[in-house]
Write a structure and sequence with these properties.
Elements (H helix, E strand, L loop, with lengths): L1 E6 L4 E8 L2 E9 L8 H11 L7 E7 L5 H18 L3 E4 L1 H8 L6 E10 L2 E9 L5 E11 L3 H7 L3 E3 L19 H5 L18 H10 L7
Length: 220
């Protein structure tokens, strides 16, 4: 089966095409500081380079966050659009699982994956890597103070991985879905009419609007 994978939980978006467990092609693009959106052109370019027609895709795997609101929204929209247009499943995967898978730390043990959540906080998620390399979730994403990330890893008896941490400096990359085969195979396809990435928190623009107006933008 040919898989198209995307992730844009940070300000670096990534695209990969895999044929079974073989990486066929990949690309990384900036998601910030550009005049035009770059992720969809990267998808088209990688498919062309790999000589893969859209109709040949068997599924789309999309990093589901948490992370950058705007970047995740772009990646999620692209993934849903492709899945709907071709009639293939979209399988969401935690971007923090991709952090672990992208870290190169595939030895057995516990790993605390961390991503910057801004405002002095990080998103963290705890994973176990089995002797056969299988990665499984121990507890789901939560926000902790950035100053507490290292201590959280110590309390969990886990090695710390993630961009801008004191541990292994690793961000999520789409190509690393190859290490998450069992997790993906056990994840049901997303409901395309309802699925959205797990943003982790409100967009900065919405926070500013609500602060200025003293009420929620959307009733909660």
């Amino acid at each position: 089966m040919i898989t198209l994978a995307l992730d844009a939980a940070t300000y670096a978006g990534s695209v990969a095409v895999l044929d079974g467990s073989t990486l066929v092609g990949e690309r990384t693009v900036a998601m910030r500081g550009r005049d035009s959106e770059a992720l969809m052109p990267a998808v088209a370019a990688v498919l062309e380079e790999c000589r893969v027609e859209a109709a040949q895709l068997g599924r789309v795997v999309c990093g589901a966050g948490p992370g950058s609101f705007t970047s995740l929204r772009i990646a999620g929209g692209i993934a849903k659009g492709i899945a709907m247009a071709i009639g293939i499943p979209l399988v969401p995967v935690s971007s923090l699982a991709l952090v672990v898978a992208s870290s190169g730390m595939h030895s057995r043990g516990r790993f605390l994956a961390a991503l910057d959540a801004l405002r002095g906080e990080h998103y963290v998620e705890l994973y176990d890597v089995a002797a056969d390399g299988d990665i499984s979730l121990l507890w789901p994403a939560r926000r902790v103070a950035s100053s507490e990330v290292e201590r959280t890893a110590e309390h969990a008896d886990a090695r710390l991985v993630g961009e801008g941490t004191t541990g292994v400096n690793s961000g999520p990359h789409a190509r690393s879905v190859v290490y998450l085969t069992k997790m993906l195979d056990s994840t049901p396809p997303a409901d395309l009419a309802r699925w959205e990435p797990a943003y982790g928190r409100l967009a900065e623009a919405q926070v500013r609007w609500e602060s200025e107006h003293g009420r929620p933008l959307v009733p909660r």
